[in-house]
Amino acid sequence: MTENDVSTSSGSVKQYPATVFQHQAWATEQIAAVHGWPSFLLKRVVPYSNLDDALIAEAVQILFNLHSVFRSTIHARDDGVIQRVHPQVQVDLLSNAIDLRKSSDKSLILNALIDAQASQRLPLGELPHFLIALIRDAEANRLLLHIDHLCVDARSLDLLMQQLQTICQALVQGKNQRIDALKPSVDYTDYAVWEAEELSSNNISAPRKYWRQLLATSELAFDPLWQLTGREPRPAISYADRFADGCRRLRSQLDRRFQNLAFGYVREIFPSSGAVEKYSFFFHGQVFEQLKKWSRQNGFLFSNVVMSGLALWVHKMSGLHNFIMTMLSDTRLSEKFFDVVGCFAMEVPVLCQLRDREKFADLCGRLQEQLSESYQYRLYPMTLLLVDLDIDYSCLRTIQVNYINLSSQEGHNYSPEMGLGGIADRGIHMRLVEYKNGLSVECEYLKELFEASQFADLIQQYPLLMAALMADSEQIISALPD
């Protein structure tokens, strides 16, 4: 908690440092407000067929007030961006009920409601940070939720759904002690204070030194997609110039570091061209099972083998030997934050170095060692690193990977309707979801880089390359087909 807390009629409003992600979100809002962009909202549809409307309304009210991130507003002061945590947030659910029981075009109405919610912009300086509607239907009553990405990541969203179920059961059974047990002893504000201390001048030198030593080399390609597409690298264009009118709204206290954080975050949400295509496939069957078995036999995490395979794929398609991909990581560095609801997403660079005379196992071992070592430094923001290395964020064209492992969770087998979607930020966004029965590869890419047929041909080389590897895992990398 910081000083200058404010007392109101409803209780005390407490002030805390803003997290890096909240800084990004605040800076982005200054730009989005000018352009009329919506908030980045995550959607969930929750069935509640056998529950009373009043009970579900009470459960939702309890749920959103359990966690400070839903009661926090973001503000700029002369000394920086801060969050203010309010005593409570009011959830007006029953007045937002939609009755579809007598409607003949339910899907049309529901889709229109989803589109209407998704297009909203929720100011960060005001509550709430979510939109919620109660949908009554003869088949199944549902809650339609859109929550600002400022508040939750994928793990936090799953935690919320579990807690909502527990609260509903406790209310039905009259066991309030089960609700009391959900109250967190550690909250997102505790993480904000901890992160601010970790990123202070006293603690930031070690991660900065690590990343600079790992990545500061003239031979390293931060933009492998230019070689992958066969096009010439485009000239550097200041990202600030793209959003000049919006950037004038940025407060003067945003130094260069947070300006770059802001521009990077904007790029993740709003690709400059707006022209994004999708392509997905399901990697399963004999080769998938062979790859899993080979990973276990050689002591590698399957996720690291998949990442090594992607590095090999980029090498074979582009001819590059030293390049960067990036991986989305969770910044819950301490176990005490593991079940905290909030947004903990951070982008981490992955150094890919390939040697013609080595075997695939050598590449996997080196990449696994690097990822394990760099994991402890993942709190250091990628965009700060680019500033340190004097790299223009706007020209970065690489592959961003989000790996999600659902293989150990019961009932999670792949089906086409489980597609999770993604956002092409710097070229290709790949969301890889590992299930028991295969690997879902969901891609979004910028159309300015690839024709649809070109991208399909390129990405389909990945399973073929893995098949060639499993046919003879002892062959050297240069012997694999291009």
- What structural class do you assign from the helix and strand content? alpha+beta
Largest sheet: 6 strands, mixed
Q: Rounded to an integer, what's the Rg over CA atoms?
A: 24 Å
What is the spatial order of strands in the main beta sheet?
9-14-13-12-10-11
* Cα distance spanning the termini: 57 Å
Poorly predicted segments: 233-274, 411-424
Mass-distribution shape = globular
Share in helix: 25-40%
Strand content: 15-25%
Mean pLDDT: 79
Number of helices: 17
Number of strands: 14
Please describe what this structure looks like.
With 482 residues, the chain is of the alpha+beta class. Helices cover 39% and strands 20% of the residues. The protein has 17 helices and 14 strands. It has helices at 20-35, 53-66, 106-118, 154-173, 176-180, 188-198, 205-215, 224-229, 239-242, 244-247, 256-269, 286-298, 302-318, 360-374, 382-388, 452-459, 461-471; strands at residues 6-8, 11-17, 41-47, 72-77, 80-85, 97-99, 130-136, 142-148, 276-283, 322-330, 345-353, 398-405, 427-435, 438-446. The longest helix has 20 residues, at 154-173.
Attribute tags:
482 residues; alpha+beta; six-stranded mixed sheet; four-stranded antiparallel sheet; 17 helices; 39% helix
